[in-house]
User: Fold this.
Amino acid sequence: MRAKTRCWLSQREIFTTRGTRQSQIARPSHGLWRISYEVILSPLQKMDVELQKLVESGKLTSKAAEQLEKLKPGAFCLHKSWGFGRVREWNLLLNQIVIDFASKKSHPMQVQYAAENLTPLPPEHFLARKATDLVSIKNLARENPAGLVRNILESLDGKATAQQINEWLVGDVFTETEWKRWWESTKKALKASGAFSIPAKKTEPIQIRGEGISHADELIAAFNKARQPKEQIAALEQIIKSYQQFKQPENQLQPIIVTIENMAARNQKMHPELAFELIMARDDLLGRIPSLHTTHIGSTLSKLILDEEKRLISILPKLPAAKEKRILEALPSALGPRWTERALHLMQGSHGRAVAQIPRILGETGQHPELRTMLERSIREHSATGEMLTWLCSEREHWNELVTPDLLGAILAALEREKHNAPGRASKLHRALVEDRPLLGDIFKNADIALARDAMRRLQLSPLFDELTKRSLLARVVKVYPELESMITGVEAQEKAAQLIVSWSSLEKRKGEYEELVKVKIPENSKEIALARSYGDLSENFEFKAAKQMQSVLMRRKAELDQMLHNARGTSFENPDASRVSIGTIVTVRDVTTNKEETYTILGAWDGDPDRHIISYQTAIGQALLGHEIGETISLNTEHGAAQFTIVSIQPAPPDQTAPAPGLPSESAVETAMAE
Assistant:
């Protein structure tokens, strides 16, 4: 309320009058000021009488009173903890107002606290509208979903995430199922309207754009605004997802194709993984919009693979899984006949994703035998990586012929390497061995008990596991061979150690390894320990810890070789019994179904060479063949499962020409076969 008046005041009164605004001043000779002014009623004069009394009594600040004027009974509000509510009543006599929150009905609050902690909501606020007219909100959701979202965004300062919108709609307006269906169609409407900015990530907020530019223009602007290659790739992926939004793709997107190809060329040398991502994204865009064309004819994925073939092993881990898969699937067309060799090389040095993908691609292209040969060799030579062995353990039902005690030896060797390279960190392979309880049972279910006993001794000597874990692993082997329980209980009977029949050449090789270990590696390690100890402060001495860990590996290997050499019996495989399959014979078998013939040379425990079809008598195939005669039919496990084979011929194998070292024990092949 304003009152306009004219009066005469003294100069002193001019500066003491409250609620005035001077507009004209004239100074007459009698010393009084004539002022034309408007009297402005202060907020206190307009305020609710009861609030005014609280302010005058000092129980409420003027600012709080102004806030409470907006929180009269019936008004809606928000509290940071209790959420949406409606003012039920004032009880200023008790200095309280009462709020109905969803979880706190008739909740009293001190007026000063309420003024400071409640946010008044205008009638057009979405929550206020939903509380007063839910039917209209439901109709709006059905008839104008973009308008409903706009109301929600305006109620949240112009932006909100999908999760925030969900929380305001699900329960009152939609069920969870209805929401999902409604939101999918609404997102398309929001994009088409051009009035909303739709982020790529679900966690980022949707915003009211202000002016209605198209979603396509927004995507192009985001790409042009991006400065880093990763940002450009992310923007490009959004363009690919929404390619149908572009009404004039040749004009809108052809410049982007040019930019992509130039960026790929610039990044190939220093950041080849980005070049791969850019070229694949370009190919996706060209595939969706045929009217677009490349400006770099030679810039193809196959050409990039050829250029970066030697660096693929370091590039692939830096790529997203889907893009890594695309590169691996493109290897055959890019590299031609030598792609198999490159794929196997990648498998031996790559991380888990590639190791899982490469066998699938090899299988689909008929390269399964090459993969099996590589796996057999790497297991036999203990060169298989932890990633390869982890994959093989998880897929072992398809590779039964490789699930033998040799696999456990390869696993332990890989774990020792991993422990040396990354001490204190449990690997995937370690977890697979410990947590996959049926694994050891599968490894030993068809193995000779002597091999199981040797494996248990190796586990007992291993520094890789704590005692509890070690006993758990041993118990799994005992479950297959209960007669070995005494090895855990400590009352093992004094049995003759299992003898290993080996060729003189393989025995000499093992002796050479033992001598190098004892005369070179262990002494060098002792010097490393002494040198590291001299650095002092062993608690933080990495060199000392690493040297001690290597000492454990070397001493364990020495113990293994001691046992192996003690049990080894050398032979030249002369004069084997060729009337039946025995150690030192060459056996030809024929598949009963396909009539395809296979030839195996059965030699000693350390003589296996799958590339030359030489197998150890301890392998599953060797054990299945031993003792059978020409014409007999046996069952052998193949890559396609069990199959029936007939023994066609048995011939003596060429004898080992290595001369036995003096003093080494030996057994003839005939005696060995009889012992089996």
Summary: Residues 1-45, 491-497, 664-676 have pLDDT under 50 and may be disordered.
